[in-house]
Amino acid sequence: MTATTGAVPAHGGRGRRTLMWIATHAAAIVLAVMFLAPLAFMFLTAVMSDSQALSTSLWPREWHFENFRRAFSGDMVRWTVNSTVYAALSTALMLVSSVPVAYALARFRFRGRNLALVVVISAMMLPPQVTMVPLYIVWSRFHLTGTLWPLIIPQAFGDAFSIFLLRQFLVTIPREYADAARVDGCGELRTMLRVVLPMAKPALAAVALFQFFYCWNDYYGPLVYAKPENWTLAIGVATFRAAHHVEWNLTMAATLLTIMPVLVVFFLAQRVFIQGVTLTGVKG
Q1: Maximum CA pair distance of the chain?
Q2: Residues 167, 121: contact at Cβ < 8 Å?
Q3: Of 49, 17, 277, 51, nearest to 164 (Cα)?
Q4: How many angstroms separate the CA atoms of 67 and 149, rounded?
Q5: Checking phi first, is residue 158 left (phi over 0); if not, alpha (psi -120 to 50) or beta?
Q6: What pLDDT score does 123 carry?
Q7: Whole-angstrom Cα distance, residue 53 to residue 32?
Q8: Residue 57 neighbours by CB under 8 Å, 6+ apart
Q9: pLDDT (0 to 100) of residue 216
């Protein structure tokens, strides 16, 4: 007579672990489905034929990947170039101008520092619509209306939100690092560039991504200042939809092509971005 053992089959153990993992991450799974479902719907509609895109069918009968080529042609290429130039230059100028200000507010002790910080925070609360008319008059006198330069050049003078976010991160870096660099003969500029900023990469990545995403998705600014040949993708996609209002497959293809660079940049820098946003909330 053979004795029976109480061993659990291997597949039963794996199944139990899978169920426990699903139960533990149930909320995250539900949120992931909620966020990914619209993207999946957009992709499936983008590869449908013109007639099927107008039907209630959710799964393509035929896969028309040429819809992406049809959507990304003509004006769409020019709008993509304009958005890339606008977002890249604005992000670069913002970093160059905001980092020294944030460093000074975080590391230097001078009379009026708290007042300067209050001014920065107050600038964050000022709606852009309040200053739009006087700024438009100023830029028109410089003959720059009709272009994207009225949106790019102001970034060379700092961004209030980026300055505040960077300052919150820099105050968490111990002063001993900077003191040790000064003992070794480093000046203030070299200390900032060679010692402090390398440790602030998460915060720099966070503010850079915030600025890039804002400029890439900006609709109001280019609509006010830019001529049609200088429009960005935010306006271009709206115009594309108006021209192809019954061709939902092309509209979805153009929308996916518009958001794809943002998704790629975010997922490539996701870890450092989340780390920067988390650490900038720590008060020094």
Answers
A1: 101
A2: no
A3: 277
A4: 33
A5: left
A6: 85
A7: 25
A8: 48
A9: 93
Cα–Cα nearest to 198, from 161, 170, 232: 170
Q: For 67-91, what is the mean pLDDT?
A: 90
- Cβ neighbour number for residue 182 with a 10 Å cutoff: 14
pTM value is: 0.81
**Is pLDDT of 282 > 50?**
no
Return the number of other C-beta atoms located less than 10 Å from residue 193's C-beta.
14
Q: Mapping DSSP to helix (H, G, I), strand (E, B) and coil, where does residue 109 land?
A: coil
Measured in Å, how far apart are the chain's first and last C-alpha atoms? 73
Backbone angles phi, psi at 114, to 5 degrees: -65, -35
**88 with 213: CB under 8 angstroms?**
no
Q: Specify the amino acid at residue 254.
A: A
Residue 75 CA to residue 173 CA, distance in Å, equals: 47
32, two tokens? 């992931």
Reported residue count of the chain is 284
- For residue 2, the 8-state DSSP code is P
Question: Whole-angstrom Cα distance, residue 255 to residue 153?
Answer: 28
Residues 158 and 167 sit within 8 Å (Cβ to Cβ)? no
- What sign does the dihedral 74-75-78-83 (CA atoms) show? negative
Specify whether the CB–CB gap between 162 and 91 falls below 8 A: no
Q: Which residue has the higher pLDDT, 104 or 241?
A: 104
